[in-house]
Structures are given as C-alpha cells and as structure tokens.
C-alpha cells in the first residue's frame, strides 16, 4: 500500500480533498504523536485513523463500545476493499478464530474490539506478539466520569500505554465538553497540544423546539413533511416506544420499535430493516443509533426532553450525514424535567447526581432559549460561536416574521399565577384561566378567583406556549424541583402597563411546516432510477444501500452525467474499488439515460457551468458586499440571492468588519424607527459594543426589529 494519505483518500475512499483538519490529524498520527480528535458526527472522524492504519506497518487496534458500531465500520471498510476484522461475542467461534488468525498473520491490519474484550489477558498476550502501531479509542468520552456515557472499562485503557509503548494512542469523540476533554487527556496521559477540535456546527441541520401539547398529533403533523423518507423518533421509555410505534403503523407509516426490552434478534431485525431502507421510521430509546452511518436520515424527532445536551447533539447528529438539509424537532414539556429529576435522585453516588443535574440544567436552558439555538448548543462544547442569526433554527426563522403583541395574554397569565399563590405549575394555572372543571381547581376554590375563565378565548395549547414564552422572557421563574411558577421583578412593569410583551405564537400544524428548500440541481428522474438500482443491488448483497453509494454521490451522478471511467472516478465518493464493484453498472444506466433523453448537450453545458462556478466562487459576504457597492439595493439582493433581508445585512456587516469600505447612503432609508430612538441605540452600541444585538433588542422590549438593529449597527460602524 502506498504511503501517501492523499493517494489512499482517492484510491480507496474516492475523495479528492480532505475535509477540514483531517490532513493535519493524519500527519500528526503518522508522526506517532498521541491525538485527541473532537469532531461532530458524520464529518469524517474515522478516516483520521483508518488512513494511518493502511500506512502503518503494524496493527491498528480500534476500541469501540458497541457491536453495531464495530460491525458497521468493518462492513464499510470491506466494501472499500480493506480487510478489517472484528472480535466480539456476536460472531461464531469459527469466525472468531478465523479473524484471530488474520490478525496474527498480518493479513488484516485493523482490529475492532470492545474494551472488555481487549482487557482480557489472552487478547493482550496475543497482541504482545505483534507490532501494534496504533491504539484508537472511539467514543472516547466514555472515559470521563464527567461525560454523559461513562464506562468504567474505558477508564482502564490508559493503563495499556505501559504495555504498548511504541503505539500512538488516538481518542475520538463527537461529544465532549472542555471538562470532559481535559479528563480524557489526563486519563490517557496526552499532552495538551495533542487536541484537534473541529467546529461543532452542523450547518445542514434545522433545529426546532415546540412545546409539547398533543405529542401524537404534533408528530403526525411533522411526519406529513417527510413522506417515504427515513427518520428516527426518540422516546423516554420503552412503553412510549412500543405505543408510538403501534400508533404510527395504524396511521400508515412503516415504523418499528427499538429498545433494550426487546430480544436481541428483534432489535437486530428492526435495525436491519431501517438501515436497509425497508422501513421508514425507527422509534427508539437512546439505545439506538451509535455507529449507524445511514447517510439519508432526513429527520430526528425527540418525543421527550433528552437528559443532556451531549445525548441530544449525538442523536441529532444521526441525521443529514450526506450534507443535505435535515430537520431536528424537540417536543418540550416541563413534565419531562420532573421525570428526569426523579431518576437523578435515585442515583446513590453524589458526584453522579451533581453531574446529571448540571447536564439537565444545560438541556433545559437550550430548550427555553430565545436566541439562536446554535449559541447555547455549540458554546456548551467550548466553541466560540458568534453568529447571531444562523437561518437554520426556529428562533432565527421566527425573528424574520412579524411579532405579535402578547401583552394582554401575558397580563392574564401573570395575574393567574399571582392570584393562585405562585405555588402551582403551568397546567393548573391554565386550567384556571380556561375555566376548567378539574377537581383541583374547585378544591383550592380557584373557581372563585377573578381570573377564572378569563382565558377561554385561547386554547390550552396556546396558553402552554405563552407560559414558555414568559419564562424565556424572564417574566416567570419555574422551580426546578417542584415545577411551580412565580413572578419576577420584571413582571410588575407588564402588569402595570409600563412594558409590552411581543412574540410569535405557533401551535399545531402551523408550527410544523417544513422549511422551504432550494430546488434540487440534479436530474431527479435519473436520481430515482439510480436509487432504485442501488436498492436492488443492496438487497441482493444483503447490505445497506448507503454502503454502495450515498444519496449525495448519486445526486452528483445526476448532475454531471459521467460517460467514461475517468469521469465516474471524478465523482466525490467513487474510489477504484467501488467503481469496479458498482460504478460500471451505474455508468451504463447513465449512458442509456442520456441517449434516451438526448441530453448530451445539456451534460456539456452543465459541466462547463460547474467549472465556471468553481473558478468564480467567492465567499458569499464578499459577493454581496461588492454587489451592494455597485449600486444594488438590499431588496434587489434578497431577490437575487433568494435569502432574507437580515441575512443580507449580516453579510454586509461581515464585509465591513473585514476592512472593506461600504456605501451606507441608501441604508438610512431602510430604518423605520424615530431619530431619538436611533440615538439611544447608538448610545447602547457605545456602551455594550456591536458584537451582539440580542441585549439591545431586549432593552428596547423587542419594539425595534432585528432588521433595524442590523442596519443601525452598520451605520454606527461607518460613522
């Protein structure tokens, strides 16, 4: 095998270029420098040790926590022509011995093994007789007691350094806070410089949180957007998994359950049906998903609140691995907090209780957040995330819409909280507002209150969303232990008509509308034909379709219409082995398709267009800044680039910060606030700085729109 990582990247894996940090990490490992890799799910962590494994003379041992994770990795490597083997309890004795012999003989240089198996003396003794060049620890966060998935066996792996003194140690994980990262490095005796951290931002994931009011109906409304597309629904309990799975099948969806209460054979069967595209939906507890590299998962729905942000991030990371837009919806209810808190209190170890409570608090802060969802999520993992409007979460998308005046509804809710004694939760307060005949209302004589029934004109679902909004605004505080609501100092100004409350309330199907995606550039008819052929081949070989080619690879074929072996190999993701196995079949199909639909000229035109686009590609903010300076208005730019006004203004701000001059004469016309307010905003910029607009947006009680603040910030910076 060649010693060039770039050559292996193309020949074996079919890619022309490395993703960010991959080349640096690979070089670092090849120099036998211990390495900790923190990368989001689905962005290429595995390549970072797989390519060195093919270059090293000796064996690479990969420690992995789950059988499914190991099996998937080994299957994918074998599809690429790489002889990797696995040692675990899921294979027969004959297979086990055969794999053992392949490692001993050097026929296979990559061994996947569970930590418990690796720590057995007979396995260690066998490896003592080999040259172990690399020991890779996948899901390395399992080492840390501060992680969300601590495993004692992982903690013992650091002791192997004394045994394999010539091996480079590599740790990989997608979910590790700074504290967990530090703990991993300490446990493995890594130098501080041995850490590579990629951005935690998965830009193609649309993040949304809805107050859970009618979970089943909300789920059905959401699924209407994803007919015949793959997705995962996570539930808190096994009972919920079974119930929801049955309900979805009654409504015509192909769904299967997955949890630890099922037999091994049933779990394996259901997972297999899902990854092979034979069913649409897996309904699961958190037990599902680790190591499943199915690239075309279009959505992840959390039916309940996850226990921590690490789990949430890891679970949403199972969608959109092909780089196409995927949606992640969390149905949020305060009842879930109480359930999680109950299980935390059952833990005997005080440290475990403390860690779990901190994790839960961070998860709740994310769910309650009114700023861009990516800010609390990405900063939680220690990354400095400064973008204020990502354009791919509910909060950022909501800011683009007209805000509603919620003052009267807020006053009613706050009054009901006050008059019921500030000792009840949202559900009871809403019962009082809507004139409920619930026994608890009458027992407490709350039917005699002046606020009883004054909220009948709005549904309980709307009131639940409003209660969440008031908590987010800091007008209410929810007791973490008991769930009761109480007023804050800010509430008085609202009740006394000194301040207004603005927001955007969505419930039901309106909240579940799918984001509008740009039209696909590929030939969709050809794409579907290629997908159908891929499924046929996969079924014949009894492997998941994505192991042949991902949707993204097929889409590239349906853009460029390759006609020769050279052209097919130029498609990212088509290596030499894959071409020999499958590429010729797809090449014939594409040629026949081009003849049938007479699209040779179109093919050449598309190719030239793509070449031209590559040559002329500039960063979007530079392109927009230059167009604006040439005289194009903001309105013209929104139409030209098909993006929102706020996004155009964000690009202009970035253009300005990079030192370019920007004409501002026409921007003043976009400002729709009085001059005296403008002056006050400029004073706030002087005091607070211009990096974040949220504090200023809040100071003006949401009355000054973000678009106005964006424009005024640019004007302020050019004064």
What is the fold's blueprint, element by element?
Layout: H1 5-11, H2 22-30, E1 35-38, H3 47-55, E2 59-63, H4 67-79, E3 84-87, H5 93-105, E4 110-113, H6 115-118, H7 121-128, E5 132-137, H8 152-155, E6 168-173, H9 178-187, E7 195-197, E8 205-211, H10 215-223, E9 230-234, H11 238-250, E10 255-258, H12 264-275, E11 281-284, E12 297-302, H13 309-316, E13 326-332, H14 334-345, H15 350-368, H16 374-380, H17 394-398, E14 404-405, H18 407-419, H19 426-433, H20 439-443, H21 460-472, E15 476-478, E16 485-487, H22 491-495, E17 502-503, H23 524-541, H24 551-560, H25 565-569, H26 576-597, H27 600-616, H28 620-629, H29 634-641, H30 645-657, H31 675-688, H32 694-699, H33 706-717
Parallel strand pairs: 1-6, 1-7, 2-4, 2-5, 3-4, 5-6, 8-13, 9-11, 9-12, 10-11, 12-13
Antiparallel strand pairs: 14-17, 15-16
How would you portray this structure in words?
The chain has 719 residues and is of the alpha/beta class. Helix content is 47%, strand content 10%. The chain folds into five domains: 5-197, Rossmann fold, CATH 3.40.50.300; 205-398, P-loop containing nucleotide triphosphate hydrolases (Rossmann fold); 404-503, Arc Repressor Mutant, subunit A; 524-616, Orthogonal Bundle (DNA polymerase, domain 1), CATH 1.10.150; 620-717, Orthogonal Bundle (Arc Repressor Mutant, subunit A), CATH 1.10.10. It has 33 helices and 17 strands. It has a seven-stranded parallel sheet with strand order 3-4-2-5-6-1-7, with helices on both faces. A six-stranded parallel sheet has the order 8-13-12-9-11-10, sandwiched between helices. Strands 14-17 form a two-stranded antiparallel sheet. Helix 8 (152-155) links the parallel strand 5 and strand 6. Helix 2 (22-30) runs parallel beside helix 3 and helix 30 runs parallel beside helix 33 (706-717). The longest helix has 22 residues, at 576-597. It is globular and about 85 Å long. The model has no long low-confidence stretch (mean pLDDT 85).
